C-alpha cells in the first residue's frame, strides 16, 4: 500500500458568543427575517456597518451560515471572501477574531474548490498581514506593563489561533497557498507562535498542525529550516509537560520532524528516529477508551461540585437582601461577579472533552506517522550511512540541531534504524492492542452524551489506523520480530474475530478496507513462509463476496488479492478441487464485470496465481472453462485499456495494466497446453 497521508480531525465549529449569538443562531436555524436575497446578502451588507459590534455580529452570523453547504454557492456569488478579507485588519480586535473565525469555517467546510477560490481572491494578502501584526503585537506586549497586556495578549493570541487555522486549512487544500507561505516568510512567523507553547498550547497545536501540512513534500521550505528553527521544534518535542494537549503537540511536532528528515545530519539520523518513536510509543501506551470513561466521570464530578458551590455562595449572599427576588436577581449576580467567583476559576465546561479529544487525535496521528515511516523506500547498500542507535533519544538535539547550520546534509535512508527502533519501543505490540474493537462501556457513555458522541467516530478511526499500521508493520518487519508463526496465526484469528463479530461489516467501508489490507499482508507473509492459514475458505469467501460489492476500490482489490493468495496455497494441496472452482468462478466474474480496470487487473493476476500450477488447479480450470472465458475477454480487456486508460488511470497504473495484458496472453497459451493435455 502507498503512503498514508495524514488527515486532520474535524475541529469544533467556531461558535459565536455574546450579543452576536442570538443573531447567528437565527441565521443557522433559518428563522431570521429574510429579504428576497436571503440571509447572506444582509449579513454581507452589515460587514460595512460603522458600528464594530454590528460588524462582529455579521461575521459571527456568517461563521454559522457557511456550515450550511447550500449557502456556499450564494456566498461565492456575492464575493464573500473579498468582503471578509479586509476585516482581518479591522481596527476592532473582536471583529478581526470573528472575521477569521468565519473564514476558518468557510475554508474547513468548503473543501478544495473553496480554498482555491479563496487564494484566487487574494485572501492570503490580508491573512499574512494579520499574522505579522499579531506577531508584532505579542512581541510588544512582552515589553509592556503587565496590567496593560493580559487582556490584549489573550485577544491577540485568540486572533492568531483563528488565523493560523485559516492558513492551515488553505495550505492543506491549495498548492498555491503553500507557495505563498514559502515566499512570504510565514515559517518565521508561525515558529514565533510555536515558541509560546509553555503558555499558549492551543495556539501551538494549531501551528503544529499547519507545520505538519506545509512541510510535507515541500523541498523549497526545507531550505528555510536553519538551526534556530529546528531548535524551536526541539523545545516543543522535549517539553516535559504530560497533559493531553501537550501530548498532541509533541506528536504533531514529531510528524513535522519526520517530514524534515532529508535535512537532518546523517550522523544524527538514528537519534532522530529514536526520539520520534519514543514519543509515539508513549502516546500509544495510553488506553484511549479507559481515558474516555475516566474523563467523563471527572467532568460529571466537576460540574456537580461547581453547582453545589454556586448554590452555597448564592445562599450565603442571599442574607440581608430585600424580599423582591425579581428586582434583586440582577444586582445579586453583579455583586457575585465582582468577587472572585468559584466557577470562574474552574476550566471551561468542555475541559475534559477537549483533553480526551486531544489524546485520541494524538493516537490517530501517531499511527499515521508510523505508517509513513514504514513506507520509506529501502536504500541500496551503497547508500547506507554508518549509523548507531541510541536509547538516549533526547541526546539527538545536541548532535544534530546545533550542528545543522552550514553542514552538508544527505537524504535519510533509515530502514534499518526504523526497524530497530520499532522493535525497541514495542510498537508492534502497542499497535496490535489498538486494533481491538472500542470498549463497549466507553461507546455507551459517548452515545448517551451528545457532546461526547463524536468520540465514537474517533475511537473507530483509531482502530482503522491501527489495522493499516499493522499491515505496514507486517510488510516491513521480519517474521521473528512479529513473534514467529504462532503469533501470525493468532493475528489472523484475531482479525477474523473482529470481522465476523460485526454482522454489518460490509457497510463500514473504512473498517473493511483497513482490515482487508491487514489480512492481505498477513496471508501473503504466511504463504511465503509456508505457514498454515487459519481462516477457512468459507470465511474468506464470505469476506470476499461482501467486499466485492464495496464502492471502495481498495476493498475490492484487497479481497481479490486475498483470494489469489489463498487459492495459490490451496492449488498445491489435495482435495481442494471444489474450493478452487468456487474461487476461480468468483475471480473470473470480477475480472470480466468490475467497472474498474485496476480491480480487473488484480483479479486477472489472482487467476494467474491460483491456476499457474498444481494438479487440482489444472482440473478446476478445465471444469470452469477458464480458457474459453479468458479468450473471449482478452480483446475486451485490450479495448478497455485503449479507450479508458489514458483518461482515467495514472502512468504507473497503465504500466501495471500493460504487464497484466502481456501476462494474460502468456497465461492463455499456457492454459491451451493444459487443456490439450487433460482432454487428449
Automatic annotation (TrEMBL):
Gene3D superfamilies: Leucine-rich Repeat Variant
Alphabetical GO biological process terms: erythrocyte maturation; protein import into nucleus; ribosomal large subunit biogenesis
Organism classification: Eukaryota, Metazoa, Chordata, Craniata, Vertebrata
Family (UniProt): Belongs to the nuclear import and ribosome assembly adapter family.
Listed SMART domains: ARM
CDD domains: Syo1_like
Extent of Basic residues compositional bias: 1-11
Self-association state and partner proteins as the record states: Component of a hexameric 5S RNP precursor complex, composed of 5S RNA, RRS1, RPF2/BXDC1, RPL5, RPL11 and HEATR3; this complex acts as a precursor for ribosome assembly.
GO molecular function: unfolded protein binding
Record has Amino-acid biosynthesis as a keyword: no
Disordered as annotated region, ranges: 1-38
Role according to the record: Plays a role in ribosome biogenesis and in nuclear import of the 60S ribosomal protein L5/large ribosomal subunit protein uL18 (RPL5). Required for proper erythrocyte maturation.
The name this protein goes by in its record: HEAT repeat-containing protein 3
